[in-house]
């Protein structure tokens, strides 16, 4: 007969059995978890434990490995060629399916290849969800979509611990164990659709994953698959009943991309490609490992000192309490960009330089990425909101002020 008693503390620590996998942290996962998450290392029981003797040997001076210093040189010509070849194919594939959003696709690739997250804002029906799903197909990455609603709970995103029945190896019965059921955040690309419609409690479930690439549930911290990207959307219409993202969460998005309404010729192409019998599906361009290599190549692009100083001046000019801030910034801005804004300027400028076939970053790259990198990091005061001032207008004013200084 089956044992229907409550799980004991000895039964919580489960060994590796037929229907469970256990990782180095001591957490159990469903047996199909490793197949569904190829970038997560699930190891047998004991892989995360070390004996006292082994720990002593590993801590000896002979066992300590000296870290290899990164080479100061930038990417090689072969790296640049490979980077451009893959990214051009990826951009062409996305543009062939998502019509009329070339600028959005380019900015999305900037954030993707810089290893950051994206906030997409636009009215319904412009292809935001289609763009994200097509990107996942072209990169052969695990894709998960979460529709944010007011009743959505954090456990619906990160996962929860459940009690399940497991055979004890004999034909006489079974036992109950605790096992972790991962949520949709354990994917490579997570689409947080209409993220501003969920409560702040649920929105905060994304914060740790976006910054540390880990998820803490109970007394365990679990790593997320690599690469990991959060692509969130929000609708600027029907703002009643929504919860605007706080500044701390907005700052974790590398770029904020505005999705504009397509032109007349683009609308004709949308009709030709969507209302017929043909169903378009993106072909695979690269894998997750190749994408991670492209991100590493972009990080190796050198940045000259005067380019860094230009980016610093651009960021500081968004703060109204700085001496070099333009008059409009002093009048209309409450808070300026954070150091994450500077990181976004430099990282996306590196990617843009590679996409343009150059080995180094120019001031033109910094100016081009300033709008998506800073528009969500500039907080307007009451006067700015009342006068209809936009962050884009202030960024343009800052750039012109720096150029004429």
Walk me through what this model shows.
With 405 residues, the chain is of the alpha/beta class. The chain has two domains: 75-157 and 182-299, P-loop containing nucleotide triphosphate hydrolases (Rossmann fold); 301-405, Magnesium chelatase subunit I, C-Terminal domain (Helicase, Ruva Protein, domain 3, Orthogonal Bundle). The protein is built from 18 helices and 13 strands. It has a five-stranded parallel β-sheet. It has a two-stranded antiparallel ribbon with strand order 1-2. The chain has a two-stranded antiparallel ribbon with strand order 5-6. A hairpin with a 2-residue loop joins strand 8 and strand 9 (220-223). The protein is globular, with a radius of gyration of 24 Å. 33% of the residues are buried.
Number of strands: 13
Strand percentage lies at: 15-25%
Helix content: 40-55%
The fold-level CATH name of the largest domain is Rossmann fold
Structural category: alpha/beta
CATH class of the largest domain: Alpha Beta
Could you give the distance between the termini?
Answer: 84 Å
The coarse overall form would be globular
Could you give the order of strands across the largest sheet? 4-7-10-3-11
Q: Write the CATH architecture name of the largest domain.
A: 3-Layer(aba) Sandwich
Q: Any low-confidence stretches, pLDDT <50, length ≥5?
A: 1-72
Please give the domain count.
2
Query: For the record, what is the CATH homologous superfamily label of the largest domain?
Result: P-loop containing nucleotide triphosphate hydrolases
The pLDDT mean sits at 79
Count of DSSP helices? 18
